[in-house]
């Protein structure tokens, strides 16, 4: 069973033991649709989920007052593979993309996917070439031609100079 990091407790909320969570996932649904969550290595049942100022606020079994919530500050939150929702066609979890082989449109090997940067208008694929060079490719149809998750391959088109950056 693999644990997937989805958030971090950043503060206590109120007096009843609720915790404020910095959410690493795209939505609150992962918390709403999961019965239990790992707080570091301890499995805890989720009693309540709400949002407050774009932050997730959780009530957890085992944290019943502000003192216990304060002690949990800094703890990372995890779910298991089974807790992850099915994604629509054409969408992928970052963890599934990392390690995929990246090919040029002529079928030649370019490198291996190492990360996905998600803090811009579109995702940016980060890959490492066989020569150890880091290349950044925006995930737009002009550059990312195909993602074949079953084969573990991503086909890309580069423009002149893209490898020189």
Walkthrough of the structure:
The chain has 165 residues and is mainly beta. The protein has helices at residues 29-32, 66-72, 94-97, and strands spanning 3-13, 18-23, 36-39, 42-52, 55-60, 76-80, 101-104, 109-117, 124-129, 134-138, 144-148, 153-156. A hairpin with a 4-residue loop joins strand 9 and strand 10 (134-138).
Q: Numbering strands along the chain, what is their spatial order in the largest sheet? A: 1-2-5-4-3-6
Order of helices and strands: EEHEEEHEHEEEEEE
Radius of gyration (Å): 20 Å
Query: Which structural class best describes the helix and strand composition?
Result: mainly beta
Number of helices: 3
The proportion of residues in beta strands is over 45%
Say how many strands there are: 12
- How far apart the termini lie comes to 39 Å
Summarize the helices and strands and which ones pair or pack.
Elements: E1 3-13, E2 18-23, H1 29-32, E3 36-39, E4 42-52, E5 55-60, H2 66-72, E6 76-80, H3 94-97, E7 101-104, E8 109-117, E9 124-129, E10 134-138, E11 144-148, E12 153-156
Parallel strand pairs: 7-12
Antiparallel strand pairs: 1-2, 1-6, 2-5, 3-4, 3-6, 4-5, 7-8, 8-9, 9-10, 11-12
Quick structural gist:
The protein has 165 residues and is mainly beta. The chain has helices at 29-32, 66-72, 94-97; strands spanning 3-13, 18-23, 36-39, 42-52, 55-60, 76-80, 101-104, 109-117, 124-129, 134-138, 144-148, 153-156.
Notable characteristics:
12 strands; mainly beta; 6-stranded mixed β-sheet; 6-stranded antiparallel beta barrel; 165 residues; 9% helix
């Amino acid at each position: 069973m693999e644990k997937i990091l989805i958030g971090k407790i950043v503060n206590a909320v109120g007096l009843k033991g609720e915790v404020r969570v910095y959410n690493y996932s795209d939505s609150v649904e992962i918390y709403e649709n999961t019965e239990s969550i790992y707080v570091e290595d301890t499995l805890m049942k989720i009693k309540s989920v709400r949002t407050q100022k774009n932050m997730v606020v959780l009530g957890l079994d085992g944290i019943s007052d502000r003192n216990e919530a304060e002690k949990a500050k800094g703890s990372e939150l995890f779910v298991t593979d089974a807790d992850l929702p099915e994604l629509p066609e054409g969408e992928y979890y970052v963890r599934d993309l990392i390690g995929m082989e990246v090919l040029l449109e002529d079928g030649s090997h370019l490198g291996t996917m190492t990360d996905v940067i998600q803090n811009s208008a579109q995702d940016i694929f980060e890959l490492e070439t066989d020569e150890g060079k880091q290349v950044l490719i925006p995930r737009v149809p002009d550059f990312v031609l195909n993602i074949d998750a079953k084969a573990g391959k991503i086909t890309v088109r580069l423009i002149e100079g893209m490898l020189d950056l």
